[in-house]
Amino acid sequence: LTAQIADSLSILLDTESVAVSLQAEHHCIKSRGVESENSFTITNVLRGQFGNADFRSQFFDAIGRIK
Predict the structure, then answer these.
(1) Per-residue model confidence (pLDDT) at position 37
(2) What is the sign of the dihedral through the CA atoms of 1, 18, 22 and 54?
(3) The whole model's pTM is what?
(4) Which of 24, 37, 42, 49 gives a 20 to 30 Å CA spacing to 6?
(5) In whole angstroms, what is the distance from residue 26 CA to residue 10 CA?
(6) Per DSSP, which regions of 1-67 are E strands?
(7) Residue 65: what pLDDT?
(8) How buried is 19 (Cβ within 10 angstroms: 0-12 exposed, 13-18 middle, 19+ buried)?
(9) pLDDT for res 49
């Protein structure tokens, strides 16, 4: 899903430089009442200029997450 969002943004914005970070909860675990700190996952897609360490760092700082 993260890659599909990145693909769509790249096309819509007409750029190769796209960064997408997606956090998703595992509802199958939560719905059973299991309270786990690890019941979510984060996926990242970094393309173009975001392959550069400085750009990548600025992106993660801007969204408030550390990779």
Answers:
(1) 60
(2) positive
(3) 0.76
(4) 37
(5) 28
(6) 19-25, 40-46
(7) 62
(8) buried
(9) 97
Answer positive or negative: Cα dihedral of 11, 62, 46, 1. Answer: negative
Q: Give the Cα separation of 43 and 56 in Å (integer).
A: 14
Instruction: Report d(CA 41, CA 9) in Å as an integer.
Output: 21
Question: Which residues partner with 46 through β-bridges?
Answer: 19
Find, among 64, 61, 35, the residue nearest to 50 by Cα.
Answer: 61
Maximum Cα interatomic distance, the chain, rounded to a whole number of Å: 44
Domain ranges, ordered by start, for the chain: 2-63
CATH number 3.90.25.10 given to 2-63: no
